[in-house]
Design brief:
Layout: E1 17-20, H1 22-27, E2 39-42, H2 44-52, H3 59-76, E3 86-87, E4 99-102, H4 120-134, E5 140-143, H5 147-155, E6 159-161, E7 179-181, H6 186-190, E8 195-199, E9 202-208, E10 220-223, E11 229-237, E12 240-245, H7 264-273, E13 280-284, H8 291-305, E14 311-316, H9 332-336, H10 341-352, H11 358-372, E15 373-377, E16 389-394, H12 401-408, E17 416-421, H13 437-445, E18 451-455, H14 463-471
Parallel strand pairs: 1-2, 1-5, 2-4, 5-6, 7-10, 13-17, 13-18, 14-15, 14-16, 16-17
Antiparallel strand pairs: 3-4, 8-9, 9-12, 10-11, 11-12
Helix pairs in contact: 7-8, 8-10, 12-13
Length: 472
Amino acid sequence: MTKRKSHSESGKSATKLFVLDTNVLMHDPTSLFRFEEHDLFLPIMTLEELDDHKKGLSEVARNARQASRYLDDIVSSVAGRIDEGITLTRHAADPATGKLFLQTQALGSALPESLALGKADNHIIGVVMALQRQQPQRQVILVSKDINMRIKARALGLAAEDYFNDKVLEDIDLLYTGVRELPADFWDQHAGDMASWKKDGRTYYRITGPLCERLQVNEFVYQESERPLHAMVREQAGRTVVLETVKDYSHQKNNIWGITARNREQNFALNLLMNPEVDFITLLGQAGTGKTLLTLAAGLMQTLEDKTFSEIIITRVTVPVGEDIGFLPGTEEEKMNPWMGALEDNLEVLNKSDEEGGEWGRAATRDLIRSRIKVKSLNFMRGRTFLNKYLIIDEAQNLTPKQMRTLITRAGPGTKVVCLGNIAQIDTPYLTEGSSGLTYVVDRFKGWEHGGHVTLQRGERSRLADHAAEVL
């Protein structure tokens, strides 16, 4: 919401009155303080629904309780009459300068007969209609995460909009990809004061020019020509950057646990995964681009061969695509097994690469791998600290920014965190591509010297899967 500045139109008041639906508070309790100079109105039905949802251990229940605490703080600080509005400013740094109005009396609304009066949504719409009649001099806007409620409100001629403040980006196409193609005239503009040197088998270039200002640390750049360049930005200061050529993991001699990169982006991803200086990695890409396989192969190599990490921990959000199958028997690990089909599939591929050991050797390797991989549920992550672990967060697009923060802050010394996901496959209610925790961390971590991101483009499953992704 804060992204949208108020404007006076046709003599209307510059400050708007936003009527909040319950789902906005349950999605983001801090939304109460995110409307800058505008006023907020809470219908009594919103408070009733908040009360109904406060029980339980779910994220929604936690948010409902937190919203109630914020409301309690605001209301208990009031000095005058509540119906005159309560100021939302808590301290000097607070962006909220408007007032909060609570519904203190019945608002008579002439709802159309087709809308049932007993329904909470319709009651809130009725409140918006009554407020618009009472205050014709200002814009009254319903804010709701419920699409159908917004459609109903607009059908009745009322202003309604989504809650935008949690969106990291307005347009998901603007999301940082971690990979940039250099223009054809790049060297003409940037090779003037170029310095070049070799160190540990890598070539480094120090270049200066206009494009350098837009490059981020750990961003990959490439140019496909007669002399192709695949490099990574190591340092960036104003108009000067230092580029380091990447290791070629597409060659069999550099294979990672028997796996080689099949395309440019996979090669860039392996360079990040195998880099001991990079602690946090995000890999985006649609199904079949190799996110999980590359991450697991790099994890096994660094856990079993290089002994950099003590074990691999895998976790994912347990959001079913269809109907839930109820409670599952067994330990935490056994309960998580149905969600870990992707892990089993990838381990099968990685195990097959061990051709020399024969059947017995493969069975022994499988048992060794299994002993070093732990599957954990998100529900028990609070309060933990992981030391020297390789933490993989799968299906990260279904996490909220708050859950993502909880998980990433579990990392202790020597731990590498890898987030995998496809933002086109969000199964969590109220989360969109723009407000997903995965989008949030990609945007916030770009340019950090110990973080990296690659958006994988090409599917490498099979010609059938690639064709299906295109035509279906």
